[in-house]
Amino acid sequence: MSSPETFYDVFRQQGISRRSFNKFCSLTAASLGLGPSFAPRIAHAMETKRRTPVIWMNGLECTCCSESFIRSGHPLVSDVVLSMLSLDYSHVLMAAAGHQAEAALEETRTQHAGEYILAVEGNPPLNEDGMFCIVGGRPFLEQLKEMAAGAKAIVAWGSCASNGCVQAAKPNPTQATPIHKVIRDKPIIKVPGCPPIAEVMTGVLTYILTFDRLPPLDRLGRPEMFYGQRIHDKCYRRPHFDAGQFAEEWDDENSRKGYCLYKMGCRGPTTYNACSTVRWNEGVSFPIQSGHGCIGCSEENFWDNGPFYDRLAEVQTPLGVEANADKIGLTAAGVIGAGVAAHAAVSALTRVRNPNSGE
Amino acid sequence: MTVQTPNGFTLDNAGQRIVVDPVTRIEGHLRIEVNVDDSNIIRNAVSTGTMWRGLEVILKGRDPRDAWAFTQRICGVCTGTHALTSVRAVEDALDIQIPENANTIRNLMQLALQVHDHIVHFYHLHALDWVDVVSSLSADPRATSELAQSISAWPKSSPGYFRDLQARLKTFVESGQLGLFRNGYWGHPAYKLPPEANLMAVAHYLEALDFQKEIKKIHTVFGGKNPHPNWLVGGVPCPINVSDTGAVGAINIERLNLVKRIIDESRQFSEQVYLPDLKAIASFYKDWGFGGGLSSQNVLSYGDIPDHANDYSAANLMLPRGAIINGDLSTVHEVDQRDSEEIQEFVSHSWYSYDDENRGLHPWDGVTEPNFDLGPNFKGTKTKIEQLDENAKYSWIKSPRWKGHAMEVGPLARYIIGYAQNNPEFKEPTEKLLSELDLPVSALFSTLGRTAARGLECVWAADKMDYFYNKLISNIRNGDLATANTERWDPSTWPSDVKGVGFTEAPRGALGHWIHIKDGRIENYQAVVPTTWNAGPRDNEGNIGAYEASLLDTPMADPEQPLEILRTIHSFDPCLACSTHVMSPEGEPLSDVKVR
User: Fold this and answer.
1) Which end of chain A, N or C, is surrounded by fewer C-beta atoms within 10 Å?
2) Shortest distance, CA B566 to any CA of chain A (angstroms)
3) Residues that bind Ni(2+), according to the entry (chain B) (predicted)?
4) Are A42 and A207 contacting, i.e. CB atoms less than 8 angstroms apart?
C-alpha cells in the first residue's frame, strides 16, 4: 500500500503551487480567528495526516444537513470526501446498501475504535420502542448508541440532533430526542441550524482534523467561533434598527430600502449563529439580506416560539435598556423627524406610481 | 404461493427472500424485500417506509402563514417544493392573488430545484448503479478524451485532464481508505460500461458535486439560504429595488446578474454534460429493459410552473397535468384534487388504523392513528425484524390511489402524459432521444426510461429558467416591482372556516397539500407526496404500488449483491422523509401514542 493521500497531495495534484498552498493555510488560520503563527501548523497537519474515518448516521430528519454539507465552497466537498476525511458511512452518498452498508459500519466500529468521528444528522424517536425510525430492521437508537461507544468525538449536525427540531415540536408525537439526551458519556459538538451553514459544517470538521482537538464550546455545546454572537450583533441592517427604521409591511417602501425586519418578526436579536457574517452558499446572502426575518432555526424550541411573524416582545437596545421597537422608533423619530415626513410622502408617491403593488 | 393482483401482476413468495435495509443513496429510510425464484428472477417485492415523524400533527393549531416553514422541513433534498405547495394551499383557502413577479420568482426557485435535484440524483444517487468506479482505473485517458469529445463540446475533456483525475483516483484507492466507495459492487456482472466511459462518468460525478452548489444560489438570492430558503404567503419575501436608494438591500441588477450567470451555467451543464452522459451510458444498457412496473399502465401528474400568476388550470401550467390509466395513451383524464372520490389514501397494509380499513379517505377527511402491528407471521422480534409479512401491515407509508388505481408519479409520468397530449416540448425531445438510441417508444416504460425522462426534464427546466428570467426582467423594465400582496396578511381579514389545496410537481412527482383553516388557525393539514404514491404498500384489494411492481421479473446476477434492485428503486429517486406523514383531523393528541 502506498502512502496515504494527504491534503497537500491533493493540492499538488490539482496543480496548486506550494505558495498557493501556504496562502490557503494562512487564510484558513485567519478565517478560524487564529492568527498567522498557526499557518505552519495547519500546513504541517495537511501534509502528513492519514484521513480520519467519519461515520455519518441519519435518524429522523429531512436530509437538509447532508444537502447543506455538499454546498461547501471552501473546502469543496469533493476534496473533503476524497482527500480530507474518509466518509466510511453515509446513507445519502455511499455506494453500498443493505448488508454491505451495515458491514462498512461494523468494520469502522471494530477496526477504528476510538479513532472515528461520529456525525449524526437527525435524532432518535423513543416512542414505539424506537421503531418510528428503523435501520436494518432495528431501532436507529440502538445503532446510534453502538456507534457512539467507539467514537472519539461526536458531532450533532443541525437542529434535529442538537435540539430536536421540527419533529420534536409540540406535541412531539414520536418523542424525537436530541442525541445528547441518549449519549451521555462523550463530548458532543452541537452544530445547530436548520440546516447549519455549509462552511460552518466543513469548518468544524476541518478544525478537528487540523488541530486534532475539539473546538472550544459554549455552555450549550456549540463551537464558540461560529455561535458566539447573535445574528443581530453583526447584521448589516443593524444601523436601521438603531435608527428606528423598520419595514412595516411586506414589499413596502421600507422593505425595498433594506430597513430592519424586526417588526416583521425577525429573530436575529435572539439567535446565535454565523448567518450575518459567514452568510450562506459561499456568502451569497442570508435570510435578512433577502428580505425575510430570521426564524431562529439554530435556537432550541424555535418551532414553538412562533408564530414567526409576531415580533419579539423585548430586545436590548444600544443603550442597554429594555425597549420594544416602537419605543426605539419613537426615540429615533425625534432626531430624524423631518426625514420621516419626507419618507411618508415618498411612500405614498411610489404607491401611486406602482398601481400593481400589493396585487 | 402465487397471487394475481387486481392490477395485473403475478406475485410468488415461494423462493429465497432477499432483504435490502438500509437502501442507501436516497433521502430517508427505506427497506426492500424480494423473493427470487430458482433462476434468481424477482417474483415478489415488498416496499417498506421505515420512518415516521408526524409533522401534520405538529401543524395543528398553528398559524397558517408559518406552515410553509414546517412543511419545508418534510424534506431537505427537494427543499422548497413543500413550502411552495404550502403557500399555494393557504392562498387557495384564503383566496389570495399573488403578484406576477412573485409567480415568476417562485417558478425560478422551483425550476432551480428541478435542475439541481435531477443532476444530484443522476450523478450522486444513481450513477454508481451503472458506473463501476474501480473499472475506471484501467481506462486509457487518451481514449477517454476521444470518447468525451465525440459526445460533447464540454471543455474539460483533454487526455491530461482524465490522466490527472485517474492518478488522483488511484492514490485514493491505493490508500486503502475507500470512503464512500467502500463495499460497493465493483466488478459486478451487471456493470456494462467500458473503463473509459466509467472514467468519464467518475470525472463528471466530481464535477457535478462541485457544480451543484452553484444552482441553488438562485434560492439564496431570493430566499436567503439553501437548503430551506424563505417563502411568504401572498408572494415572495424579497423586495425588488433596481434603481433607488437601498437597492443594494433588495433584488437589484447585481443579484439578477448572478441569477443569470447560474442559469447559463445550468443550461450548459445540462446540455453538455448530463444529457450526453445519459445517452452514452444508456447506449450500453439498451438490453437492460427491466423496471417498467406501473409506468406503462397508470401515471399521474398534477402539472406545475404556472406561466401567469394565480391560474392553476392545465392550459396555464407548463408541466403536463392529467392521468393515464390502463395504458390507454389516447385519453388523458382530468384530475380534481378537491373531489373526495378521486384521491384517497388506504392503510390496510400501513402501520395506521382506520375505523373501516376497506375504505380510502380523501386528504381533507383523512385519519391517522399509528398502529405498529407487524402481524402474526413476520420473522424476528419487534425491535429486530428479519422478514416482514406483506399480508399484514408492513410500512409507515400509506397507499394513495386515484379513483382506486395505483399510480406512478415523477418525471417519467410527466413525460408520458406530455407525450400523450402531443405537447411538443415533451414529445419531441423524447422521440429524438429514442431515435438516437434506436429504441422504440415502449422502451420508455423501464428503469432506463425513468432515468432518461429525468435528464430530459433537467434540460427543459434549465431552459424554462431562462424564460422566466427574461419575464422578470421585462416586468421590472415595465415598472412592475410588486412582490407581495398583503391585503389578507392580517388574520382578522380571513373567513372563519375555509379549506384549500395547493399542488406542485416536485422533482419526484405529484405533490399536494390540503389545509383546513378555522378561526385563523390550522385545523387540519395533510400532504400526499410523490414517494407515497410510488413507494406505498399494497392496498386493501391487493394492488401493488409502483416500487413493488417495478422490481418484478428482474433477474439478479447475484442475490447477495442487490445492484439490480438499487438500480430500479433509485430510478424513482426515493424521498422517504416526504412519504411518511400523518394527520389527525379530530385533533386527538398523539403524544400518548401507545408505547408497548
Assistant:
1) N
2) 8
3) 75, 78, 575
4) no
Cβ distance of B596 and A167 shorter than 8 Å: no
Q: Is B99 helix (H, G, I), strand (E, B) or coil?
A: coil
Q: Which domain holds residue B113?
A: 97-288+450-486
Chain A residues lying within 8 Å of B238, measured CB to CB: 290-292
- The answer to whether the Cβ–Cβ distance between B177 and A137 falls below 8 Å is no
User: In chain A, what residues touch B63 (CB-CB under 8 Å)?
Assistant: 306-309
Instruction: Give the number of C-alpha atoms closer than 13 A to the C-alpha of residue B244, restricted to the C-beta side.
Output: 14
CATH number of the domain that residue B208 is part of: 1.10.645.10
Please give the Cα distance from A62 to A65 (Å, whole number).
8
Query: Is A135 in contact with B591 (Cβ distance < 8 A)?
Result: no
- Please check whether residue B551 lies inside any domain of the structure: no
Closest Cα in chain A, distance from residue B221 (Å): 6
**Nearest residue, CB atoms, A359 vs list B53, B99, B582:** B99
Flag whether B374 is in a domain: no
Residues in Cβ contact with B40 at an 8 Å cutoff, skipping those fewer than 6 apart? B555, B556, B557, B558, B559
Residue B336 lies in a domain: no
Nearest CA in chain B to A296: B69
Q: Which residues, including other chains, have CB under 8 Å from residue B366's CB and lie 6 or more apart? A: B345, B526, B583, B585
Chain B residues within an 8 Å CB radius of A167: 53-55, 58
Which of B76, B176, B179 is opposite residue A1, by nearest beta carbon?
B176
**Counted domains in chain B:** 1
- Does A97 sit within 8 Å of B562, measured CB to CB? yes
pLDDT tens-place values along chain B, 596 residues long: 899 999 999 999 999 999 999 999 999 999 999 999 999 999 999 999 999 888 888 999 999 999 999 999 999 999 999 999 999 999 999 999 999 999 999 999 999 999 999 999 999 999 999 999 999 999 999 999 999 999 999 999 999 999 999 999 999 999 899 999 999 999 999 999 999 999 999 999 999 999 999 999 999 999 999 999 999 999 999 999 999 998 988 999 999 999 999 999 999 999 999 999 999 999 999 999 999 999 999 999 999 999 999 999 999 999 999 999 999 999 999 999 999 999 999 999 999 999 999 999 999 988 778 899 999 999 999 999 999 999 999 999 999 999 999 999 999 999 999 999 999 999 999 999 999 999 999 999 999 999 999 999 999 999 999 999 999 999 999 999 999 999 999 999 999 999 999 999 999 999 999 999 999 999 999 999 999 999 999 999 999 999 999 999 999 999 999 999 999 999 999 998 777 654 443 434 333 333 22
- Bridge partners, residue B395, by sequence: B350
